[in-house]
């Protein structure tokens, strides 16, 4: 087994509650605007996924 390395999360997403569009972001801000309909939302804390590693 190789040495352990740090992994960096590089993307976040949210579903707009108004139009149900999936929005992608490179950072996790407190507020965001839906790219599809312009709805402004307050975002909760990010949930991280674990598992499903490729390779």
Automatic annotation (TrEMBL):
<protein>
    <submittedName>
        <fullName>Uncharacterized protein</fullName>
    </submittedName>
</protein>
